[in-house]
Structure formats: C-alpha cells, structure tokens
Write a structure and sequence with these properties.
The chain has about 80 residues and is an all-alpha fold. About 40% of the residues lie in helices and about 0% in strands.
Length: about 80
C-alpha cells in the first residue's frame, strides 16, 4: 500500500485519472512517472524505484490502487 498526496494539477486532472495513472505506471514499472505523482517533500527520488523492485520480488497475487482524500475517504 502506498499513498499519493498530489492530485491536481501535477498529478492528474481528477481523482479517477490519478488512480488510473498510478495503476498504469505501477504495471509498466515506470518509477519516474509514478514518483512524479507524489508531493516533492513526501518521498525521495528512489522511493518508487525501490517500491516497484520490492513488488517485483514479492510477486503479489493482487494489487489495488485506491485514492483517499484528506479525511481518509476512499473513492
């Protein structure tokens, strides 16, 4: 599980687009694009690269991307 803080304008034009982008970037292994969805101060430059490498090693059977607002409500 990971949390993406940035939604608009840099992350995506909508919450559903943000979820879609995160899912696509994760499946593509595009760590640079995925990292750009986080706020600059929330993760380091290698966070998503390391995260995706861990996912590849763990080979999870099910992945899900959910987006929550500042109150923790998920869409």
């Amino acid at each position: 599980m990971f949390e993406i803080s940035r939604e608009t304008p840099s992350g995506a034009p909508s919450r559903s687009a943000l979820r879609t982008q995160a899912w696509e970037y994760m499946n593509e292994g595009n760590s640079d694009a995925l990292n750009d969805l986080f706020t600059e101060s929330s993760v380091g430059d290698s966070y998503t690269k390391d995260y995706l490498a861990h996912l590849e090693d763990a080979k999870p059977s099910r992945l899900e991307v959910s987006i929550g607002d500042h109150r923790g409500v998920h869409v």
